[in-house]
Specification:
mainly alpha, globular, 267 residues
């Protein structure tokens, strides 16, 4: 989605934001052809990640990222669209006779020492980011891009494994909405990495201990383990390598960074 000047059109994005998707979904089909247990578990996990966006947005906006008006304008609409993506996945669960996203409690989360930085609350994040300045914006854009790659791979894997025409329709709706998210993060990430060695250094440091997908660190341990196996094991074994190659091709990054990201996908 480009503006007349050639860059991503943030105003157009905000003006055409996608809201409630329920009328686009073939929910009735699930009454006669329900999803299998693993597919429903994957839908629930993806839905919880999408619905956790406001917490992630809060963590971004306590840093210098909130001072970039263009990025902030995008992120507000991005969070709005992700809320409605979560609602669509919630509708799929309910159409399959399962509790909604917020109707079941999650189990215990993992406590990994390497993920300590990711678990910081907003105050500690703000203090940590104080000396990083505007390069932190590029870090956030790169993390957002990689997360979009991971999530897109997960939706494709879900579609492949579920074998459901009704779910394929839902996945198509979700991926179409998220395509614009990928475009913005891609444009911003590449430009900021290419322009700033400081951004590259901070990004490399952040990627060394990042957790994927974003928000997974707050999900139950058993759910994380299931999701990692569901998406990246068996027929999905090449997915992590593909994402690693994309990361390695970003300005200032390399195969070593890509391999670190791939390792985090299957922890």
């Amino acid at each position: 989605m480009t503006s007349e000047s050639g860059g991503f059109d943030v105003r157009g994005f905000a003006r055409t934001a996608h809201g409630n998707h329920r009328s686009e979904l073939d929910l009735q089909a699930f009454s006669t052809a329900p999803l299998d247990a693993d597919s429903l578990a994957a839908v629930r996990y993806l839905g919880r990640l999408e619905s956790g966006t406001m917490e992630h947005l809060r963590n971004l906006l306590v840093t210098a990222t909130h001072k970039d008006a263009r990025v902030t304008a995008f992120l507000v609409t991005w969070a709005f669209e992700k809320f409605w993506i979560a609602d669509a996945l919630d509708a799929v669960l309910q159409a399959n006779g399962r509790p909604g996203l917020r109707d079941e409690e999650e189990g215990r989360v993992r406590h990994s020492r390497s993920e300590a930085a990711v678990r910081r609350g907003p105050i500690r994040r703000a203090i940590s980011a104080m000396n990083k300045g505007f390069p932190i914006v590029g870090v956030h854009m790169t993390l957002g891009l990689i997360d979009e790659w991971v999530m897109d791979a997960a939706y494709l894997r879900l579609d492949q494994q579920a074998g459901s025409a009704a779910l394929s329709g839902t996945v198509a709706v979700v991926r179409e909405v998220k395509q614009r998210h990928r475009e913005f993060f891609d444009e911003e990430s590449r430009r900021r990495l290419a322009e700033s060695e400081r951004t590259v250094a901070l990004t490399r440091k952040e990627l060394a201990h990042a957790t994927w997908p974003i928000g997974a660190v707050d999900r139950a341990a058993e759910d994380r383990t299931f999701f990692e196996r569901y998406v990246f094991d068996g027929g999905g074994s090449t997915i992590a390598a593909d994402i690693a190659a994309k990361v390695a091709a970003l300005p200032g990054l390399d195969a070593r960074v890509g391999a670190s990201v791939a390792k985090g996908l299957r922890s």
